[in-house]
Each structure stands twice: as structure tokens, then as C-alpha cells.
Amino acid sequence: MSPYAPDERVMVSPRYMAGAGDRIADVIGPLIHLFGWKAEHDAGNGDVSIDSPDGSVFVDFVPLHPLGRWCKVVHHEPHWEVVFSRQAPLEAVAAFTQALPQLLGDDRRAEQIPVTREPLDQIAALNGWSAGGSSFVSPDRYCRIEHTPEADDAWKVEHVYFENDPLATFTQSTPEHLVGNFFAHLATPVPVERAFADIPLSTRYEHSGLITPVRGAAINPQVAHALAQLWRPHRR
């Protein structure tokens, strides 16, 4: 029996085990409200289409996509596409989409929305991921990012529990610093907040992630979670 009610708020780590979460506003809201990107909303199915002011970038959010690929970013000249699945944590997806205006030269929020410029191998090393050939693997071996420059999907982020549904794919010509921004927010050990019911079943019942309560903690929930990480036996 679960110690948490379905709507109870909890802290979860690692992020790639937490599911998407419910903060879709962080993914598309800043583009619309801070940078003036044009948005069209289909009230019937919830689809949202967003265009950059110069028409060079499109962001489509399709919550009812039959394959769970609910967020797609397309850039023209050069052409590249990025697809995020419903299992990709929205914190990492938002790190990618919120960096798009700077890619187009709009630096108005650069101080509030930092974009990492570190190479992926440094991001991996800082967060305890191991490098092997063309891939980076999480400390628990559940998640990896694979780089295959000659493939259509030059970057692929995979999860062992969702083998047929990558968390994210990035085609050739996708700027590597944007891939790095996503990766940095995916690989960080900093936990994310979720409703317990939104956490994937594999994380809830196979004890592959760490879940701690938000309410009732004697100290800050993030600090309590960090201490629980220290006390938890190391898993591989």
C-alpha cells in the first residue's frame, strides 16, 4: 500500500524517473507572455501552436498525441526538429524552449533565463554521469544520452523503462548548447516536485527513484530530500 495519496505533493529524484509533471506553463508560457510569440489554442483537443516573431521556429504542444510525443520544436534554415515525450521532465523541456529566444537574438531575459555553454561531457561529469564512446549514462544506468552524428536523430535520450519511446530526440543541426541545456536540467540531482499520481508506475513501485513528502517535513522539503539521498544505499 502506498504511503502517499494520489494528489499528495512529493519531491522526486532523479529527474528522469519523475515523469513530465504538470508545469506545462513553464514550457510555453514564457514564449507567449515574455517574448510575444504568437499562439493558437484549439479548445477542442488542447493543442497549442506557437510561432516565433520571425517565423523561423515553431513549437507544437499536443497533449493527446497517440504515441505520447506531446511537444515538438521545429527550426527552419537550417532545418532541425526536436521531439519530447510525455515522460520527459518538463523542467528540462522548459530549459530548452525558454532558450529559443536567445538563439534568435532576443536577449531581453538572458539574466533570468541562463543558457549553459558547457560541453556535454562536462555536464555529465559534474552530475556523476559516465562517458562511454558516444554516450553518457546516468549513475544508476537507467538513463542515457546517445550521440550518433550521422543518424537522422543525432541525439537521443533513452530510458530503460520506456525503450520504445525516447524521452527526447534531436535531429542533425540542432544547436549543441540547446541539447546541453536540456541535458543539464535532466541530469542534475536536484529533485522536482510532483503529485504522487503523476509519477510513473515504474518509479513508484520498483523503488528506482527517491520520493519524499513536501508537507510534514521538519525542515525544507528539498533539504530533507537531499539528506534522504545521502542516507540512501547507492544503487546501480
Automatic annotation (TrEMBL):
Source taxon at top rank: Bacteria
InterPro entries per UniProt: DUF317_SPDY
Occurrences of domain DUF317 (ranges): 52-100, 138-192
Full protein name: DUF317 domain-containing protein
Organism: Streptomyces nanshensis
